[in-house]
Amino acid sequence: MREESLAPPVQQDLLRIAQEAMSNAIRHARPTEISVGLRWNPPNLLLKISDNGSGLVKARQIGRGEGFGFANMQARAKNLGAELDIQSKVGGGTSVIVRLPIIS
């Protein structure tokens, strides 16, 4: 799987999801580390953004944050036909995982 095989709008949506996840982490969780990974795990392309910040305080924050960040990530993932999963633990950081099915 090569980067250039993804359509530019798909690349842009994945980039925007990663940017939003990192921005949310920096703004709200105060992490000392953020990692971004993109890997091919047939039949899915996986994008994972993880931080070691404070995590989400309330379960309701997942997918329904006070701002539009999570809603925007959800909308972009849905637009791609991808699944967005947000995993968080208070004091244990947050991971945003996008599973994008790739059909050959």
Overall geometric form = globular
Query: Which class do the helix and strand fractions yield?
Result: alpha+beta
Rg, Å, rounded: 13 Å
Supply the CATH class: Alpha Beta
Overall average pLDDT:
89
Question: Roughly how much helix do the residues carry, as a percent range?
Answer: 25-40%
Q: How many E strands?
A: 4
| Cross-sheet strand order for the largest sheet | 1-2-4-3
CATH architecture: 2-Layer Sandwich
**CATH homologous superfamily annotation:** Histidine kinase-like ATPase, C-terminal domain
Question: Number of folding domains?
Answer: 1
**Helix and strand succession?**
HEEHEE
Q: Can you walk me through this structure?
A:
This protein has 104 residues and is of the alpha+beta class. The protein has one domain: Heat Shock Protein 90. Helices cover 33% and strands 31% of the residues. The protein has 2 helices and 4 strands. It has helices spanning 8-29, 69-80; strands at residues 34-41, 44-51, 83-89, 93-101. Strands 1-2-4-3 form a 4-stranded antiparallel sheet. A hairpin with a 2-residue loop joins strand 1 (34-41) and strand 2. The radius of gyration is 13 Å and the shape is globular.
